[in-house]
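Researcher: I'm preparing a figure for a lab meeting and need a structural model of a single chain. I don't have an experimental structure, so a prediction will have to do for now. The sequence is pasted below. Please return the structure as tokens so I can convert it later.
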Amino acid sequence: MSFDLRAFRDTLGCFATGVCIASAMGKDGRPVGLTVNSFTSVSLDPPLVLFCLDNRSESLSSFLDAPGFALSILSADQMALSNSFARDPAATRWDGVGAVPGKGGAPLIPGALAVLDCAHHATYPGGDHTILVGRVLGYAHQPGAPLLYYRGGYAALANGQG
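Model: Understood. Here is the structure written out token by token.
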């Protein structure tokens, strides 16, 4: 049986997701971050969340070496920021962002719909990705509409509200 990877990706794309920027502080004291949509909650007690990072990512070692990470859930008006953290060179992604450090030192994105500040809890192999589970140390949210991703592109809520 052959497995069509493009058709598989298209199938997975039918599940609408929010868009986050995962961030950590590198060993060199510089922030690292990238756009992800592989975020999910895991547990309320203890408070755990996870995201998955491609094993080929240049940021993987920084995330694994850092004591924790943050997830900034983007609002509908942060599409340009999402694109920047997905496409721009790692060295310029933070230009003009004005991030603030969370409790664990990872940078939080100002204006995000929600932020989760996490300590590393566990790491698991997940095929061509690594699953990073974090214990939530702090969180905040504000009103607004989420930035959504669906079938390979950005989407909006039908009613336009959050």
